[in-house]
Design a protein that fits this description.
The chain is α+β, with helices and mostly antiparallel strands. It contains two helices and nine strands. The chain has one domain: Immunoglobulin-like, CATH 2.60.40.420. The strands form two sheets. Strands 3-9-8-5-6 form a five-stranded mixed beta sheet. A four-stranded mixed beta sheet has the order 2-1-4-7, with no helix packed on it. About 4% of the residues have low confidence. The structure holds copper (II) ion.
Length: 120
């Protein structure tokens, strides 16, 4: 039982090390950063793997609210339970710890300004 646990832990650290070593000198991989451009998130769609970290950098007129799929489709900025949000102009990061599609909106720029992160 313990051996299995250590085996799994060492795999996790190996994967982390490999993915870190792919980033030259701790450079953040561009696809793991979501910024704002005009009245859009850039990029507006990121596909990543479970456990990846996504960095957000918001312009001063934009916020970020994680919403449900239906609120996303209906352009409502209702924060979901235990959802992630950033205030206007804030930066932050989110570790993607669920295999699902995350839905985000910018409150004042609905219905245009929305983004999704697909975790595989
Ligand atoms: Cu906005």
């Amino acid at each position: 039982m313990n051996n299995t646990k250590y085996f799994l832990i060492s795999i996790v650290f190996s994967v982390l090390f490999i993915s870190c070593s792919n980033k030259e000198e701790n450079e953040i991989i561009p696809s793991n950063v979501m910024t704002t451009s005009g009245h859009n998130f850039s990029p507006s769609l990121i596909t990543c793997e479970l456990g990846d970290t996504i960095f957000f950098e918001l312009g001063s007129t934009h916020n970020l609210v994680e919403v449900s799929e239906s609120d996303y489709n209906n352009n409502n900025s209702q924060l979901i339970n235990n959802g992630y949000s950033l205030d206007y102009g804030e930066s932050g990061f989110l570790v993607m710890n669920e295999v699902k599609t995350y839905y985000f909106v910018c409150t004042p720029h609905l219905p245009q300004m929305k983004s999704r992160i697909i975790v595989e």
